[in-house]
Amino acid sequence: MHYLVDGHVHVRHGVRGEDVLDVAQRNFQAAHERMGIGEARYVLMMAETGDERFYQRCDKGEVMGKWRLARKGEARLRVMKHEDGGEVGIIGGRQLVTAENLEMLATGCDLQGPSEEMPLELLAQTILVGDRVVILPWGLGKWTGHRREVIEKALDSLDSKDVYLGDTPLREGLFAQRKMMSKLENKGFKVLPGSDALPISDGYVRTGAYGFCVEGAGGEDWFSEIRDGLRGDVKVFRGRMGLFAIVWTQLRLMMGKWFKKHG
Q: What is the pLDDT of residues 23-57, one digit of tens each?
């Protein structure tokens, strides 16, 4: 069994759950076809912030258009099923901020997750205590200067089998920090891409278009199979963003922030 996974998912306020699930299913199916692999499950790894509660909504059995809760697997997984039979797994997780103002994803955690504002290395170790997956996602302007040194120092003391790097369509389209990313990959740190939807009206449309693929036994514990599969061969699938799309997206994001502040 293959698992196609979007490693960094947000469902922003005002976005309907059924729209996210519909587009994720379509994008996963397209990636599945391109990769030419056998049977596969589609999975969204949540990276919820603040009062985002998509995983909780799934857990409570909220009906989202033609999607309904099919089953509650192990503690960190909920499976949503479309009336046509298609399924998308939802793995709980939080996006946290370290004391150095760096983002960190705690995948497979409960609603609250670990306390924030810890130093990067300590926060990663705290997350790992619960058999979770730690992802350090790239952020525009956040992997430079002093914080770059913080990242490299922390990763020198953390096990590359437990901690992963996160990538987004934005970084690839800008060809940003390629040297640093390659350096960390050469040290054994694997890259787990994710869509990382920005807080704009249609930011969610790339959900499921950018992620990774691992293999498992096809049992009930999807999360554990994905976590164990990460120690083996990890394939990446990408629906890249062009430079124009990136610039336009960033302009829309900045204009949205300006109107929110001055409107």
A: 999 999 999 999 999 999 999 999 998 888 899 99
Strand order in the sheet with 133-137: 93-97, 103-107, 133-137, 163-167, 191-193
Q: Report the distance separating Cα 169 and Cα 70, nearest Å.
A: 31
Report the distance separating Cα 207 and Cα 88, nearest Å.
12
**What is d(CA 74, CA 239) in angstroms, rounded to the nearest whole number?**
30
Catalogue all structural domains in the chain, each as residue range(s) with its CATH number.
2-262 (3.20.20)
Confidence of residue 140 (pLDDT cuts 50, 70, 90): low
Long-range contact pairs involving 127-130 (C-beta distance under 8 Å, separation at least 24)? 128/162, 128/163
- Whether the model clears a pTM of 0.85, i.e. scores above it, the answer is yes
Structure confidence at residue 213 as a pLDDT band (50, 70, 90): very high
Cα(101)–Cα(225) distance, integer angstroms: 31
Calpha distance 182→189 (Å, rounded): 9
Contacts of 80 (CB under 8 A, 6+ apart): 21, 58, 64, 67, 68, 69, 70, 87, 88, 89, 90
Q: Closest Cα partner for 95 from 80, 78, 112? A: 112
Q: Which of 228, 233, 206, 196 is nearest to 7 (CA)?
A: 196
As a whole number, mean pLDDT of residues 167-176 equals 62
- Condensed to tens digits (0 to 9), the pLDDT of residues 231-257 reads 999 999 986 555 555 554 555 555 555
Q: Report which residue type is found at 138.
A: W
